[in-house]
Amino acid sequence: MSFLSSLQGTVLQGYAALQGPQGQPQSPTDTLVKLLDRLQNSSQHEDRRSSLLGIKGMARDWKSEVGQVALPAILDLLAEPGLVDDLDMAKAVLETLNILCEIEETEPGRPSKTDCGVTHVDTFLMKPEPTHAVLSLLSTTSFYIRFFSLQLLGTLLTTPPPRPLTLQAHFLTAPGGLGTILSILDETREILRNEVLLILLNITEKNADIQKIIAFEGGFDRLFHIIDVEGGIGAGGIVVQDCLLCVGQLLRYNVSNQNYFRETSCIPHLAPMLLFPPAQDPHPVALDSFATQPWSEQKLNNALLVLALARTMVSGAGAGKIANQRAILVGGLTRCLAEMGLASAAPPVLKAEALHILAHVIRGSEINQEFISKLVLNPLAASSPPPGQDPSYSDREKPEFYRLPPQSAILALFSLALEGLPGAQNPSSAEDELHTLSVRAAALSVIDSFLDGNLDAQLGIVATMNTPIPQLPEQNSGPSHSPGSLLFEALQSLPPTDAGGMAAYTSFFASLIFAHLLRGFEPAKKLAREIRIGSDPAGPHGPTNDEDDQTSLVQVLIGNLMMAQRMQSQSNNAGDGIQRSLAWARIMVGYLMVLATWFWESPATTSEFLSEGTNLQVLIEPISQSSGVDPLVQGLCAFVLGIVYESDHDPASTIPRSTLQPILHSRVGPDQFVNRILRLREDPRFKNVGPDVLELCSQGPAPSDPSNPDEEPGLWFDWPFVEFLKNNYVSIQQSILIDPGAGGGQSKFSFFSYSFRRRYGLLAGLFRL
């Protein structure tokens, strides 16, 4: 009863100040002045406390007046050394400051810049002492003092810029300030620990100095410990997400922290976080458990954040990246990424991200490339749905999965890129098609990284393109293809006329991979020229037909290009729709990219192309048509023609440059030749391609105008080819104007000489006017 009486007396004392001399109400300002006077001058502790509670009670309704009259005194009270021992007063001070510094939002996520709370925050941050005082209060073990101190810091960190930066600067000058905040991560009271996580997310975003201090004071270990305590990425929920976000911010753009992360053996934590077995040679049962683990939305988000940490570690260059690539291999993450991307039932978005990061891990890393080349795994395929069940699994019932026979990781990558996800995982809706496309593009990215600087692999794959796989009777269940033979089959084949748009990607991805094998490597181009396609392969050594009955791969690609042109024309005439026409255009773009790459600085390949006189017509006809042909196809045909003319220096060529130039001038013409290439460069499907095109190819909404191909999502080019064309289009688009007798350096000199004469003639004409 004494406690209630005391509480009632305190409240009555506080509100008695609201009465005038005769009990009449008075203005808020007059009341505040009286309360402030008692707070500052009263010798009675209870009187001061009741006055502070009265000010706190008025803060919500008269926020501006309280700030103008009482804020300086409250800040002075905050700085008093003995406040930490007076828990009631400290709690009231912190609550009042939090109310005064709160800023109303004009709309969700956008604080108002005119609210009086902005002025109060500026007053609070004018000097570092108030911030230091709040940080010192965190040293107490009182739950409420810690909680309201953290809430006040959180409020200050969400104010409009540049105020959070000022607060961060005050943190850096506070004695042990960041260490005190970090120590609360060890709190067993989760509400305090979670408040600190939110503060760390705010202060580590853009301040490298704070990032370093937190990392070197045990931030990584504390955050990983919380993840373990919470049950990992699956059971941890949003708390684990905050921890992973914080680790990511400590690493992003901070080379010092990345080195520290590696040197303190944090990289080996990443694969187990994804529930990958820790052993170097995981047991099949453990791999099955990893491959078929369920994925909730929160668990998926957490897994993507773990992968983002790995991406950050291999996003740089130089010695640091090399050391990180080695640490990722030793820590088992390379194997984890390969298993997740190629042999698991993970959602497509997770498989694609794992493969893209794997591409970064193995690019330029011989030890990782060698590991992937020797890795054998069992891809996971989905069985057909039970009778009566929706094939798309829209009811979210789990499909049954089974293991495919063991195969090399490289073969699995080629199979994924060229054929898509195995089994019933193939797309059944437009959204699923884009997800599947993202996984196939990611597999292509890994193949590109595997071939980067790996000349032996390039030659090895090309050498096996037309070589059947010998199989013993007991090996009938094994793969019937090598990476090269699978690629060879996809290059030769065109999709059925009634196939959907995704079917075009088999030919298209085959073209991109083949271009990667040939780019800038004449030995691979020579080996590819020697491939001959006959009608009846016999024995393990390939076709035995006479050479006259065999066709070179160059001629096969030209034949397929001509067939695709014909099929597109028939599709347009039949009114099959824009998507079918775009599918054939994509196939033609792929073949033309291969031809441009193969012909470049390869006179022997160019001579092989010119050995059939009708081949020129396949390139010239689309250029000369005024309608019905995709601008990408027209521009690429012109670009390839220019390369043919530029590379036509083989003495054995059946159509020498002196014969070829008049044909190009009469059938195409210099102006149209140049305009086709320029229009190609201005097409958004080409112009918008960047180095990350394989990661972004599946993004974007469905086209709002089906007749506008510029809005069609999907992949049309890879970055190496776009970069190649941009670097060489100027010389190529002027190539047919150069003297047929010029070659090599003379060709470049003739081009610049022509340009000078042309500009001089234009200037002379202007002066004559």
UniProtKB/TrEMBL annotation:
It comes from the Eukaryota. GO terms for cellular component: endoplasmic reticulum; ER to Golgi transport vesicle membrane; Golgi membrane; Golgi stack. Keywords: Coiled coil, Golgi apparatus. It is found in: Golgi apparatus. Residues 368-736 form the Vesicle tethering protein Uso1/P115-like head domain. This is Vesicle tethering protein Uso1/P115-like head domain-containing protein. It comes from Puccinia graminis f. sp. tritici. Pfam families: Uso1_p115_head (PF04869). Its main location: Golgi. GO terms for biological process: endoplasmic reticulum to Golgi vesicle-mediated transport; Golgi vesicle docking; intracellular protein transport; vesicle fusion with Golgi apparatus. The keyword Nucleotide-binding does not apply.
